[in-house]
Amino acid sequence: MDFSRPWVMAIVNVTPDSFYAGSRVFDADALRRRIDQVREQGADAVDLGGYSTRPGAPGVSAEEEYRRLALGLECLRSEWPEAVVSIDTFRAGVARRCVAEWGADIINDISGGDMDSAMFETVAELKVPYILMHTRGTPETMQDMCRYEDVTAEVLSDLAHKAGRLRSMGVCDIIIDPGFGFAKDLPQNYELLSSLAEFRALDMPLLVGVSRKSMIYRLLDITPGESLNGTTVLNTFALLNGADILRVHDVAEARQAVEITGRLKKQML
Q1: Could you confirm whether 247 is annotated as catalytic?
Q2: From 68, 212, 247, 255, active-site residue
Q3: pLDDT along the chain (269 residues), means of 10
Q4: pLDDT recorded at residue 138
Q5: E-strand spans in the chain?
Q6: Sign of CA dihedral 231, 237, 240, 243
Q7: Does residue 213 carry a catalytic annotation?
Q8: Coil, strand or helix: which one is 39?
Q9: Beta pairing partners, 245
Q10: Are 197 and 244 in contact (CB under 8 A)?
């Protein structure tokens, strides 16, 4: 994977309850329309989710999560067979089935291995790239776990420790994600983003996922549906400070941010 030009990863949620209504697709026809849209807009990868991890979201069984993901994977493989597909799951068994049965390319684990003790071993066995995200607790409890002495230092330390464990198990391809909105309150999210360049010290590709999140709409007293402009502002800052992948709902706008910041960086050399 070549990140000399940052990637745009399109969010496709096969769920009825993701926090942003515009990301929900729950039948094959809607999935195909969404896949065609993000392909035409220039997505470099698709992040497919079947389990909403917004704070307080109800749980779903592993079988139901896999059923949703399989529907998405079937549509993706028929509509866009060469697409790079990331599977957004914290369950090792679901990850294994998506890779073995559908050839999924990347595992995106919002729990950083904490919600399924078999995840690291499974990723090592599957030999697929792994997105290692920072959080604490579960979607039900994470917003009660926002106490840090130094949020940037502690997130960096946690990611470095887990990356070390993964490497000792033979996992070579690790992408890090600071986990904006996960076990961080609004000031902590902005403190973490302002220190984003420090994550380059880990020498791993860096993913930033701030698209339409509460750190935007709560600050501005608007809705997720009104948060595209704020998302673009934060994505631009992230790109100028080292982001390699933007995980987004709005592909065309993110692509434009990549092109503009890329030109700016060339002028600044």
Answers
A1: yes
A2: 247
A3: 95 74 72 94 96 74 95 94 97 98 97 96 98 87 86 98 98 97 95 97 97 97 96 98 97 98 90
A4: 76
A5: 7-13, 45-49, 85-88, 106-109, 130-133, 174-177, 207-208, 245-248
A6: negative
A7: yes
A8: helix
A9: 7, 207
A10: no
